[in-house]
Design a protein that fits this description.
single chain, 339 residues, mainly alpha, 13 helices, 0% strand
Length: 339
């Protein structure tokens, strides 16, 4: 399957913008009425259920078992998975001419060349596992500013927080010595800091960054500007309730349902409540859209899939005084089971 034609930056509304052009539903807004309130009520029930879940003995047992399995894994394996998946996406983007996202193409041959070289360098650093620290620094100081300069708010809203969080997490992974990194070790010695000073930072940074990204995208492109998602639904039959014969459940209701779901999931991720359960839900959604939409959906979401797998492995990354200290610096205790 060939990638979709790259869209101009102003057409890049959320990830549905990888597949459709906006304009058909311009000016349409989210619906009001009993159905919308029922959807909000359902989202509130889901949030309350998730808050209560860590107090369920079965969930706590599963959480503890996953923590034990995590301790038995090679140190830093979850970060290596994130690096490989992110590196694959960046290399594919470099080869296709896209910059950080499928719909973003830098103007002019000189900038296209610069974008390809920069992305390829970061991708090779991640794939080779040579230096997480350098990959994070290049992402934060070169890739993100370049994308912001040429794509402006379209990049910042869709991808800015995600890439900044990923870059910071990679920097702190290197500094924490979770994955051996000679460059980061020299920086750490210059700062006169120990690896454990940084070990608690990467997982919460990624978790909060991903959660807030979901919230921003849902508010901006499903509640305030739903026209692209509606155009996407015109071409792809994702409104399964309408297909099942639920009368009156329009595509506008489906977009609103997706919005409140993404906001709920995003806030739960950012709060660190039952992180593994919420991450499993996100992974299920990503796999569903991949099977429905194909390789383009998969490639564009590879970094998010890596982050979700990391959160399934590590949990929230929060530290609680009541939890025992662990010897393996690569293991960051989950906060889920300590609630």
């Amino acid at each position: 399957m060939k990638p979709p034609r790259a869209l101009p930056a102003e057409a890049a509304n959320v990830h549905e913008g990888w597949f459709v052009q906006p304009g058909v539903h311009a000016g349409q807004h989210s619906p009001l009425g009993p159905t919308a309130w029922l959807l909000v009520f359902g989202a509130v029930l889901f949030v309350l259920f998730t808050f209560a879940l860590p107090r369920v003995r079965l969930y706590r047992s599963i959480d503890a078992a996953v923590d034990g399995a995590h301790r038995a894994l090679p140190a830093g394996i979850e970060w290596r998975v994130v690096a490989v998946l992110s590196g694959i996406m960046l290399v594919i983007n470099s080869l296709s001419g896209a910059f950080l996202a499928p719909e973003q193409v830098l103007p002019g041959p000189g900038l296209v060349f610069l974008g390809r070289v920069g992305q390829m360098a970061i991708g090779v650093l991640l794939l080779s596992q040579y230096s997480f620290f350098l990959a994070g620094v290049l992402t934060l100081t070169v890739a993100v500013p370049l994308a912001t300069a040429f794509f402006g708010s379209a990049f910042l809203v869709d991808y800015g927080l995600e890439y900044v969080a990923l870059a910071l997490a990679l920097i702190f992974v290197g500094l924490s010595s979770t994955c051996p990194d000679g460059t980061a070790a020299r920086v750490r010695r210059w700062l006169k800091r120990k690896p454990e000073d940084f070990a608690h930072l990467p997982v919460p940074i990624l978790r909060i960054g991903l959660g807030l990204t979901f919230v921003i995208l849902a508010v901006h492109y499903k509640l305030l500007n739903p026209e692209v998602t509606l155009a996407f639904l015109d071409e792809h039959s994702f409104n399964f309730l309408a297909l099942a014969g639920v009368t009156g459940f329009t595509n506008s209701h489906f977009v609103f349902a997706a919005a409140v779901s993404e906001i709920s999931i995003g806030l739960l991720l950012a709060s660190g409540i039952a992180t593994r359960f919420v991450s499993a839900a996100v992974l299920g959604i990503l796999l569903t859209t991949f099977f429905a939409l194909g390789p383009v959906e998969l490639v564009g979401h590879l970094p998010i899939i890596g982050i979700v797998l990391l959160l399934l492995t590590c949990g929230s990354g929060l530290r609680f005084p009541s939890l025992p200290r662990v010897r393996n610096a690569a293991y960051v205790p989950s906060g889920d089971e300590a609630t």
